[in-house]
Design a protein that fits this description.
Chain A has 4 helices and no strands. Chain A is mostly helical. In chain A, 56% of the residues are buried. Chain B folds into 2 domains: 97 residues, NADH-ubiquinone/plastoquinone oxidoreductase chain 6, subunit NuoJ (Four Helix Bundle (Hemerythrin (Met), subunit A)), CATH 1.20.120.1200; 51 residues. The chains are: A mainly alpha (108), B mainly alpha (174), C mainly alpha (643).
Chain lengths: 108, 174, 643
C-alpha cells in the first residue's frame, strides 16, 4: 500500500522533485538540441527550475531571501537571453542557419 | 488538503508535459510557445507558494518580454521544422540524459538535505505583506547587488547592440 | 667619516665606474672612459689611505675595522654575512690594489687610446678592482670566493679582450678552465673546513682551530689546506696549474701588469696569509706548499731564460716570483710572503708597464730579437725599467733585495725550511738575474736591431707618470721591511716596520735557528751570485752576441727541453686532455646514444601517444564540452555529498 498520506501532504520535497525534472529537461535541451535558440530556451528552463526551488525553499524557511535571489536570477536570465539571441543573430548572418555545429568553427 | 494535492499534481503534470514538449518538438517556434506555457505554469506554482510578486514578474518579464524576444528572433529567421533537431550519437545522448538527471538529483537532493540548517523553523509562514517586505529588503540589505545588476543590464544592452550591429545588422549586404 | 661608509665607498666607486663604462660600451672616447675609471680607482685609493690612517690610530692589539651590511645566507648553522673586514693584512692588499691599480688605470688611458673598445676595457678593469676588493676584504671564505670567481671572470674577459684573434680567445678560455680546476679545490677545501669547524668566518676559524699541529696526512686540516692550495695554485699559477699565466699575456699589457702580475695572481698568497692560523697546524701541507713553490720558482726561471717574447719572459718571471711567495708561506714566513707580494707588485707592475711602453713604441712588436739599443729612444722607460731590473735581481738597497733575502733566510733557518729549499731559491735568484739582464741587454742595450720602418718614440705623460711613481716605489718600497741584522748596523737602527705591522694577525712560527753571521754570509752569497749571473748575461748578450747560440748548441737536448717549456703543455694535452676527450666521446657514443637518448625519446613518444588518444576529446563540439562539464560536476558533487 502506498503511503498516500505522504503523497497527499504537498511539501518542499514535491516542489524540489518537480524542479529537478524541469531542470533535467532544460539541461538535456542544452546538450542535445542542435538549434542554438532552442538551446537558449533550455537554459531558460533550467533557470526557471532553479527559481522554483528557490521559492519553495523560501516558503519552507519562512523568509524572503529566496525571493530576492529569484529576482536577481530573472534579471540575469533576461540579460543572458539578450546576449544569446544577439549571438544567434550574428551566427545567422554568417551561415543563414542557427545550428550549434557552426560553433565548431571556433575550435582552436 | 486533498484539493491542494490534486491542484499540485495537475500543475506538475502540465509543467512536465510542456517542458518535455519544449525540448522535443522539431519546430523551434513550437518550442518557444510551449516554453511560454511552462512559464505560465511556473508562475502559478509561485503563486501557490505564496510568492505573488514573483509570479507577476514571471508573467510580465518571462512570458511577456523574454519570450516575445525569442519568438521575434525565430520569426525573423523564418526557421522551418528541423529535419534533425537532436545531436547524433546514442551513447553520448544516453550519457547526456543521465548526467543531466544526476546533476539535478544531486544538486537538489544536497540542497534538500541541508535545509535543516536554515535558521527559521520548517513550514513557518511567510509574513503577509510579501511584496512590501521584498521591496524593503531589496532597497536596504541588497541595495548594492541591486545597483550592480543595473550596471550589468546596461553593459549587456550596450554589448547586445554592439554584437548585433556588426556588419550592418540583420540587413547586411551580402 | 665612519668606517662602514668608507668601506662602502671603497667598494662602490669601481662598481659605479664599471656601470658607467659598461652601459656606454659602444663609445670610442678613451679619454672619458679612462678618466672615469681612473677617478673611480683613485677614490678607492683615497678611501684605502683614510682607512689606513684610521687603523694606525687604533691600539695595536685591536687594529680591525669590521662592517656587516646584511645577512647574505642563513641556512641552518651556516650563517654568511655580507661583511667586510679591514685589518693589518687586508689594508696592505687594498693599498696595493687601489694604488697600483690607479697607476695602471692612468697608464691604460694612453695605452688604449687607439683601441676600438676602450669603454669596455675600462669597465672590465673597474669590475676587476671591485671583485679584487671583495676578495681581500671579505670577512669569511665565501665572500672571498665570490671575489675569487669575480676576478677569474674579469681575467678571462681581459685576456680574451681582443677576441677576434682565435689564439687570444683560446688563451682566455685556457685561463678560465685552468682556474676552474683550482676553484673546485678551493670549494672542497672550504667544505672540509666548514664540515670540521662549522664556520667560514676567518676570525672564528682562527679561534676554533685546535692548538696542536696535525701530524697525519689525512687529517681534515691538512686535507683542507691541500685542497685550498690547489685553488691557490690555479689562481696564483703554481705547478701543476701554472700553464695559463704565460698564455694570459695575450691580453692588453696593462691587464698583464694589474691582474697577472700585481694583484689577482697574488690572491693565493693572500689566502694563506689570511688562513695562517689554520695552515700552521698542517706541517705536511706546509711542506707540500714550500716544495711546490720552490720547484715552480726554479722551473719558471729556467724557462724564462730561453724565451724571446718580452711579455712571456715577464710572465715566467711572475710565476717564478709567486713560487718564492709560496715557498715563504710554506716555511711559515707569512710576513715575508706578504712583503714580497708587495714589493713584487711594485717592480713587476713597473716592468710590465715598461714593456707596454716598449711595445707601444715598437708598434706592437714583442720579440726582443727585433729590439736592442732602445735606451736612447725611450729614456724614461729605460731609467724606470732599470729600477725594476735592479729590484727584481735583488741588488741592495732596491725593494726586491729585502723581500727576497728575507724569504731565502727564512727558507734556510725556519724549522719548516731546509737547506734544499734555500739552494733552489738561490739558484732561482741566479737564473732570475740572468734572464732579467738578458731582457735588459736585448731590449735596451747593445746595437739596435729595430727594423728600419719602425720609429720608436717615448710614451705620453699619462704613461710616463705611472712608470716614474712605480720606479720610485721599486727603490724605496723595501725600506719598510729592513731585516733586523741590517737595521742594527744602519744609522738610526730602522726597525722591520712591515713584520711588526703584521705580527698581531699572522700565526707565529717558532723562531728560526741561525746566527747573524750566517744571515750576513747567505745574503752576501745570494747577492754575489745574482751579480755574477747578471754580469754573465751582460757578457753573453752585449759583449759577445755570438756566444748564446754556441752555448745553446752545446747544451743540445737540455736547451731544447727548457725552450719548449719542459713540454708541459704537450704533456697535458697528450696525456690528460685528449684521453679525457676521447673517453668522453666514447661514453657519449655508447651510453648517451644507446640509453639516455633512447629513454628520452621513449618518454617523448609516450607523451605524444597519450596526447593523440586524449586529443579526440578536444573536438570543438560545444555540446560535448557541456557533457564533459556535466560529468565533472556529477563526479565532484558525488564526492562532496558522500563525504
Amino acid at each position: 500500500m502506498l503511503d498516500t498520506e505522504a503523497l497527499m501532504r504537498i511539501g518542499l520535497g514535491h516542489y524540489i522533485a518537480l524542479s529537478g525534472i524541469i531542470f533535467s529537461f532544460g539541461m538535456i535541451a542544452v546538450m542535445m538540441r542542435k538549434n542554438v535558440i532552442v538551446m537558449l530556451m533550455g537554459v531558460e528552463l533550467m533557470l526557471n527550475a532553479v527559481n522554483l526551488s528557490f521559492v519553495a525553499f523560501a516558503k519552507e524557511a519562512g523568509n524572503l531571501n529566496g525571493h530576492i535571489m529569484v529576482f536577481f536570477v530573472m534579471t540575469i536570465a533576461a540579460a543572458e537571453a539578450g546576449v544569446g539571441l544577439a549571438l544567434a543573430v550574428a551566427i545567422y548572418k554568417k551561415f543563414h542557419e542557427v545550428n550549434i555545429r557552426f560553433f565548431e568553427q571556433l575550435k582552436g | 488538503m486533498m484539493m491542494e494535492a490534486i491542484a499540485f499534481y495537475m500543475l506538475a503534470g502540465f509543467l512536465i508535459f510542456f517542458s518535455y514538449k519544449v525540448i522535443s518538438v522539431p519546430n523551434p517556434l513550437h518550442s518557444a510557445l510551449y516554453l511560454v506555457l511552462t512559464m505560465l505554469g511556473l508562475a502559478s506554482a509561485f503563486f501557490n507558494l505564496g510568492a505573488q510578486f514573483i509570479a507577476g514578474v514571471q508573467v510580465i518579464v518571462y512570458a511577456g518580454a523574454v519570450m516575445v524576444l525569442f519568438v521575434m528572433v525565430l520569426m525573423l529567421f523564418d526557421l522551418k521544422t528541423e529535419i534533425r533537431s537532436f545531436s547524433r550519437g546514442l551513447i553520448s545522448g544516453a550519457l547526456k540524459v543521465m548526467s543531466a538527471a544526476l546533476i539535478a538529483g544531486l544538486a537538489l537532493g544536497g540542497a534538500r538535505s541541508s535545509v535543516t540548517v536554515l535558521d527559521a523553523p520548517a513550514g513557518a509562514a511567510v509574513p503577509g505583506d510579501v511584496t512590501r517586505q521584498l521591496g524593503i529588503l531589496l532597497y536596504t540589505k541588497y541595495l548594492f547587488a541591486f545597483e550592480i545588476l543595473g550596471i550589468l543590464l546596461l553593459a549587456v544592452a550596450v554589448g547586445v547592440v554592439a554584437v548585433s550591429r556588426m556588419k550592418g545588422g540583420t540587413h547586411a549586404r551580402h | 667619516m665612519n668606517h662602514a661608509l668608507l668601506i662602502l665607498t671603497l667598494l662602490i666607486a669601481p662598481l659605479i665606474g664599471f656601470l658607467f663604462n659598461g652601459l656606454r660600451f659602444r663609445s670610442h672616447n678613451a679619454y672619458l672612459a679612462g678618466a672615469v675609471a681612473t677617478g673611480a680607482s683613485a677614490i678607492s685609493f683615497l678611501c684605502s689611505v683614510t682607512l689606513w690612517t684610521k687603523l694606525v690610530s687604533l691600539p695595536v692589539e685591536n687594529r680591525v675595522l669590521e662592517t656587516k651590511f646584511f645577512e647574505w645566507i642563513a641556512v641552518g648553522t651556516l650563517k654568511i654575512p655580507f661583511g667586510f673586514v679591514v685589518d693589518q693584512i687586508s689594508i696592505i692588499m687594498i693599498l696595493i690594489i687601489t694604488g697600483v691599480g690607479s697607476l695602471i688605470h692612468l697608464f691604460s688611458i694612453g695605452y688604449m687610446s687607439h683601441d676600438e673598445r676602450p669603454s669596455k676595457f675600462f669597465a672590465y678593469l673597474n669590475l676587476f678592482l671591485f671583485n679584487m676588493l671583495v676578495l681581500v676584504l671579505g670577512d669569511n671564505m665565501l665572500m672571498t670566493f665570490v671575489g675569487w670567481e669575480g676576478v677569474g671572470l674579469c681575467s678571462y674577459l681581459l685576456i680574451g679582450f681582443w677576441f677576434t684573434d682565435p689564439a687570444k680567445a683560446a688563451a682566455g678560455m685556457k685561463a678560465f678552465v685552468t682556474n676552474r680546476i683550482g676553484d673546485a679545490g678551493f670549494l672542497i677545501g672550504m667544505f672540509i673546513l666548514f664540515f670540521t669547524f662549522g664556520t667560514l668566518d676567518y676570525s672564528d676559524l682562527a679561534a676554533v682551530v685546535p692548538k696542536v699541529a696535525e701530524l697525519g696526512w689525512t687529517g681534515p686540516v691538512t686535507m683542507a689546506c691541500l685542497f685550498l692550495f690547489l685553488g691557490a695554485a690555479g689562481k696564483s699559477a703554481q705547478i701543476p696549474l701554472y700553464v695559463w699565466l704565460p698564455d694570459a699575456m695575450a691580453g692588453p699589457t696593462p691587464v698583464s701588469a694589474l691582474i697577472h702580475a700585481a694583484t689577482m695572481v697574488t690572491a693565493g698568497v693572500y689566502l694563506f696569509v689570511r688562513l695562517s692560523a689554520v695552515l700552521v697546524l698542517a706541517p705536511h701541507a706546509m711542506e707540500v706548499i714550500a716544495w711546490t713553490g720552490a720547484l715552480t720558482a726554479l722551473m719558471a726561471a729556467t724557462i724564462g731564460i730561453t724565451q724571446w717574447d718580452i711579455k712571456k719572459i715577464l710572465a715566467y718571471s711572475t710565476v717564478s716570483q709567486l713560487g718564492y711567495m709560496f715557498m715563504a708561506v710554506g716555511v711559515g714566513a707569512f710576513p715575508a710572503a706578504q712583503f714580497h707580494l708587495m714589493t713584487h707588485a711594485f717592480f713587476k707592475a713597473l716592468m710590465f708597464l715598461g714593456s707596454g711602453s716598449v711595445i707601444h713604441a715598437m708598434h706592437e712588436e714583442q720579440d726582443i730579437r727585433k729590439m736592442g739599443g732602445l735606451k736612447k729612444y725611450l729614456p724614461v722607460t729605460y731609467i724606470t725599467f732599470l729600477m725594476g731590473w735592479l729590484a727584481i735581481i735583488g741588488i741592495p738597497p732596491f725593494a726586491g733585495f729585502f723581500s727576497k733575502d728575507e724569504i731565502l733566510w727564512q727558507a734556510w733557518s725556519s724549522p719548516h725550511g731546509s737547506k734544499g729549499l734555500w739552494a733552489i731559491g738561490a739558484i732561482t735568484a741566479a737564473c732570475t738575474a740572468f734572464y732579467m739582464t738578458r731582457l735588459m741587454a736585448l731590449t735596451f742595450w747593445g746595437k739596435s736591431r729595430v727594423s728600419p720602418d719602425v720609429h720608436p718614440h717615448e710614451s705620453p705623460p699619462t704613461m710616463a707618470i705611472p712608470l716614474i711613481v712605480l720606479g720610485i716605489l721599486s727603490v724605496i718600497g723595501g725600506w719598510i721591511g729592513i731585516p733586523h741584522v741590517i737595521g742594527e748596523v744602519l744609522p738610526g737602527h730602522p726597525p722591520n716596520i712591515f713584520a711588526h705591522w703584521l705580527e698581531p694577525v699572522v700565526a707565529k712560527v717558532e723562531a728560526g735557528h741561525g746566527s747573524a753571521v750566517m744571515e750576513w754570509s747567505l745574503m752576501g752569497f745570494s747577492v754575489g751570485l745574482a751579480g755574477i749571473f747578471a754580469w754573465l748575461a751582460y757578457d753573453f748578450y752585449v759583449r759577445v752576441p755570438s756566444r748564446p747560440k754556441a752555448v745553446a748548441a752545446a747544451l743540445g737536448p737540455a736547451y731544447r727541453l727548457v725552450e719548449n717549456k719542459y713540454f708541459v703543455d704537450e704533456f697535458y694535452f697528450g696525456k690528460i686532455i685528449n684521453p679525457l676527450v676521447e673517453a668522453s666521446k666514447a661514453i657519449w657514443l655508447y651510453i648517451d646514444v644507446n640509453f639516455i637518448d633512447k629513454a628520452t625519446y621513449f618518454a617523448g613518444d609516450l607523451v605524444s601517444g597519450l596526447a593523440q588518444l586524449v586529443k579526440t576529446i578536444q573536438n570543438g563540439k560545444t555540446q560535448s564540452y557541456a557533457l564533459y562539464m556535466a560529468l565533472g560536476v556529477v563526479i565532484i558533487m558525488t564526492v562532496v555529498l558522500s563525504s
